[in-house]
Amino acid sequence: MNSPHTEPRAEDAARDDVADHQQHVFQLLFGHVGSKAVHVAVRLRIPEILGDHAMSVEELAERSGAQPATLARLLRALGIFGLTRRTGDGHVALTDSGALLRPDVPGSVQGEVLLFADESVWQAWNGLEDAIRDGKPAFDRIFGCDFYTHLCRHPALEAVFNQGFARQAREFGRQVADIYDFSRVRTVVDVGGGDGVFLTEILARHRHLHGVLADLRAEAETTRDTVRDAGVEARCTLTTCDFLSSVPSGGDLYVTRNVIRDWGDETATTILRNCRRDLRSGGRLLLVEPVCVETPLPSARQAAEDLLGLVLTGGRLRTENEYRTILTRAGWTLDRVTPLESSDYHILEASPSPED
């Protein structure tokens, strides 16, 4: 005979189970709270003001221009998120994670915070439903221009964009320079090379190379400063280029970094085909791009970045096989895939398909 307590206990367990699932959904639903809290903390310069020290809420409020009572509520949330901690005397200090919100530390993510929580990016997320329905980027629909044109029109945001990716570009440039054999290369064309940080890292380590930076903003003052500061002016040509139409001809090696991920398959194939058309005989292609694992469930970060690509540019993250498909369509053969350290980025090396 069943215990009279069996049924209530089963109901309690079922109720607890539902509560756990509700909590999980609510965490997702209110995920924007963490994003905005971190963004506001950076905007108030909280991480910079704290630095390596601990401060009272009152002192921090005075130095950041905030009200003590409301700042205390923000700091409480940051503490729950694991970004700040309370010291024995009740003062506030940064955790190791919170320290990465400072601009002056190795691995800083301050630029990414300022970019991806910017009001324009925030507004673009409102178009996610339409983007899912028709496959077109939300940003274009909301702002009447593509994301990169918007950056060009807003220099302050463009500077934040460059800041956010400068660390990655520098590190990837160093890794590619160390991993890839450049001994047979004379001219490397960086397609969509931004402000030149990635290319100049390669040129600085391989002094026989001549580089061509091909980008819509290649002749911007910030790019000239990057090239000059790296000491490679004599070996680096800056070429204004719309890679959707054409790329500079005559390169031994064409390189893209964070370019193909920004476009849907049709446009990405066009870019790759343009590189194939203008390649010097015997030349090759390097893609430095994130590669998703071959599974229906990528990491949470990859899933978020994939949707962000759809919202901002219409781009997408791809698996190795999906890269192979678009490369084949563009006249390339994928020869080798090499992972970069401490990231989901890989070097995808391709050569012209024999039939071409």
From TrEMBL:
It comes from the Bacteria. Residues 40-96 form the HTH crp-type domain. Keywords: Methyltransferase, S-adenosyl-L-methionine, Transferase. The keyword Transferase applies. The keyword Methyltransferase applies. InterPro entries: COMT-like, COMT_C, COMT_dimerisation, HTH_CRP, SAM-dependent_MTases_sf, WH-like_DNA-bd_sf, WH_DNA-bd_sf. Gene3D superfamilies: 1.10.287.1350, Vaccinia Virus protein VP39, Winged helix-like DNA-binding domain superfamily/Winged helix DNA-binding domain. This is Dimerization domain-containing protein. It comes from Streptoalloteichus tenebrarius (strain ATCC 17920 / DSM 40477 / JCM 4838 / CBS 697.72 / NBRC 16177 / NCIMB 11028 / NRRL B-12390 / A12253. 1 / ISP 5477) (Streptomyces tenebrarius).
